[in-house]
């Protein structure tokens, strides 16, 4: 039996594209669901800091969707995190990794660092390129050839043609790609497309539309079954070299439990707070916490015995009235004396109001929607000691929001980046717009559990 340190010949494939909008999520989600319908255990992964696509992946695969982001967690952890995700709760038969943006698009100013190509190299996986062939003929082959030649260390093992206009169009495309020696593993017509609903930050999360989301995933599985050569995809995935990196282990990452007592740590969930990495709960559990979920839309109180609270990102602006209507929980949070860590949506929820609708009032700020999207990776430094960071410590994170707060930061800011203070530290509350991945800073989980005492 293979252990977490033996070489593991895990079949795996990276679903990439020349740019955003070519159909990566459609194909990746459909592949996950179609392979699962074949009886395979499929491990879903997403390059980058995305929270929404992994929700669809999880629904399709029946296990948590996980992120592989070198910027947030360090390139040295990527292969180990892949192996961990593909091993939990049971070993997978295949891993499908959806890329981010264009194949070679990395963090701004860092060439291809944290790009899909970078991750494909780190996990030694072949790439399945999705091409939007709208208004494109033989040039699709030239584009594919250029994508492959740009980095010879990245192996494009096949192409899926998307938005094909007609049988004649498909024949033209297949003939052109045969000229450059790249196999076509599938062709999806424009009429067959299946789309998930979107809004200001991308697709609507699965948790907000569970029945409709399940119907979409089922339709995507049927689409891929009808248009993609699944046997060829499996054959391509099996060409990946054995994984030699040991599996990432949350217990090792946090140094084991932070004491004998097991404090209850609540994680906000439900439709309004869907942004959370699977490793957050795993690290808190490994650090000695009993992790429970609270839905601020529906639960009138924190779970019994809660000693700390983590409120991640999501869409509170879409649920402001319902959140305001849960007055008993808002009142409890206003007086809760345990440590609270809030990111983005959590920051807005803890303020006095959001678009004029009352929130918890724990932080002296107001928030509102704007027409401006703020997004990107951030290299921050902790400004103030808090339950998750010590002043002077560096951390990497990302922003992704269309809201703003007044004031923009507190007298005791949480972070500083670009020579500007950000966020709020107030008593035992740490809140900001910065999303972090605790696999890259596991001490945060241990400190939070220790702060419960």
UniProtKB/TrEMBL annotation:
Keyword Thylakoid recorded: no
EC identifiers of the protein: 6.3.5.9
Active-site residues from the entry: 344 (nucleophile)
Protein origin, superkingdom: Bacteria
Cofactor requirement: Mg(2+)
Keywords: ATP-binding, Cobalamin biosynthesis, Glutamine amidotransferase, Ligase, Magnesium, Nucleotide-binding
Annotated CobQ/CobB/MinD/ParA nucleotide binding domain residues: 13-201
Keyword field contains Iron-sulfur: no
GO molecular function: ATP binding; cobyrinic acid a,c-diamide synthase activity; hydrogenobyrinic acid a,c-diamide synthase (glutamine-hydrolysing) activity
Enzyme class (EC, first level): ligase
Annotated segments matching region Disordered: 393-414
Site positions for Increases nucleophilicity of active site Cys: 435
Pathway(s) annotated for this protein in UniProt: Cofactor biosynthesis; adenosylcobalamin biosynthesis; cob(II)yrinate a,c-diamide from precorrin-2 (aerobic route): step 9/10
Catalytic activity: hydrogenobyrinate + 2 L-glutamine + 2 ATP + 2 H2O = hydrogenobyrinate a,c-diamide + 2 L-glutamate + 2 ADP + 2 phosphate + 2 H(+)
Ranges for domain CobB/CobQ-like glutamine amidotransferase: 265-440
InterPro entries assigned: CbiA/CobB_synth, Class_I_gatase-like, CobQ/CobB/MinD/ParA_Nub-bd_dom, GATase_3, P-loop_NTPase
Role played: Catalyzes the ATP-dependent amidation of the two carboxylate groups at positions a and c of hydrogenobyrinate, using either L-glutamine or ammonia as the nitrogen source.
Note: The a and c carboxylates of hydrogenobyrinate are activated for nucleophilic attack via formation of a phosphorylated intermediate by ATP. CobB catalyzes first the amidation of the c-carboxylate, and then that of the a-carboxylate.
Domain notes: Comprises of two domains. The C-terminal domain contains the binding site for glutamine and catalyzes the hydrolysis of this substrate to glutamate and ammonia. The N-terminal domain is anticipated to bind ATP and hydrogenobyrinate and catalyzes the ultimate synthesis of the diamide product. The ammonia produced via the glutaminase domain is probably translocated to the adjacent domain via a molecular tunnel, where it reacts with an activated intermediate.
Protein name per UniProt: Hydrogenobyrinate a,c-diamide synthase
């Amino acid at each position: 039996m293979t252990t977490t340190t033996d070489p593991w010949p895990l079949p795996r494939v990276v679903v990439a594209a020349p740019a955003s909008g070519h159909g990566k999520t459609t194909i990746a989600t459909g592949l996950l669901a179609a392979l699962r319908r074949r009886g395979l255990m499929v491990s879903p992964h997403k390059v980058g800091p995305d929270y929404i696509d992994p929700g669809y992946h999880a629904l399709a695969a029946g296990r948590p969707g996980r992120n592989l982001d070198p910027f947030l967690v360090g390139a040295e952890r990527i292969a180990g995190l892949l192996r961990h995700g593909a091993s939990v709760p049971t070993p997978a038969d295949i891993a499908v990794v959806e890329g981010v943006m264009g194949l070679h698009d990395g963090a701004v100013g860092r060439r291809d660092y944290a790009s899909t190509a970078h991750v494909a190299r780190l996990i030694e996986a072949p790439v399945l390129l999705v091409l939007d062939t709208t208004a494109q003929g033989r040039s699709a082959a030239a584009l594919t050839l250029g994508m492959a030649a740009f980095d010879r260390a990245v192996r494009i093992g096949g192409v899926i043609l998307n938005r094909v206009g007609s049988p004649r169009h498909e024949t033209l495309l297949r003939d052109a790609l045969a000229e450059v020696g790249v196999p076509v593993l599938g062709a999806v017509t424009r009429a067959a497309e299946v789309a998930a609903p979107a809004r200001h930050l991308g697709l609507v999360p699965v948790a907000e539309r569970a029945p409709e989301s399940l119907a979409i995933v089922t339709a995507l599985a049927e689409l891929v079954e009808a248009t993609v050569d699944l046997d060829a995809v499996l054959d391509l995935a099996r060409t990946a070299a054995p994984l030699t990196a040991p599996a990432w282990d949350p217990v090792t990452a946090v140094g084991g439990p932070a004491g004998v007592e097991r404090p209850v740590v609540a994680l906000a969930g439900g439709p309004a707070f869907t942004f959370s990495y699977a490793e957050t709960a795993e690290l808190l559990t490994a650090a000695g916490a009993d992790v429970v979920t609270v839905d601020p839309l529906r639960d009138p109180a924190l779970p019994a015995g809660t000693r700390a609270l983590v409120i991640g990102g999501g869409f509170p602006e879409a649920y402001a009235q319902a959140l305001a209507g849960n007055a008993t929980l808002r009142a409890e949070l206003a007086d809760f004396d345990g440590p609270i860590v809030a990111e983005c949506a959590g920051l807005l929820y803890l303020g006095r109001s959001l678009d004029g609708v009352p929130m918890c009032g724990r932080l002296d700020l107001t928030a509102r929607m704007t027409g401006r999207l703020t997004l990107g990776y951030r290299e921050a430094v902790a400004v103030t000691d808090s339950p998750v960071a010590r002043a002077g410590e560096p951390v990497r994170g990302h922003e992704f929001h269309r809201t703003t707060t007044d004031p923009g930061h507190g007298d005791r800011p949480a972070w500083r980046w670009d020579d500007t203070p950000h966020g709020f530290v107030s008593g035992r509350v740490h809140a900001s717009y910065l999303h972090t991945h605790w696999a890259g800073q596991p001490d945060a989980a241990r400190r939070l559990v220790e702060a419960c005492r």
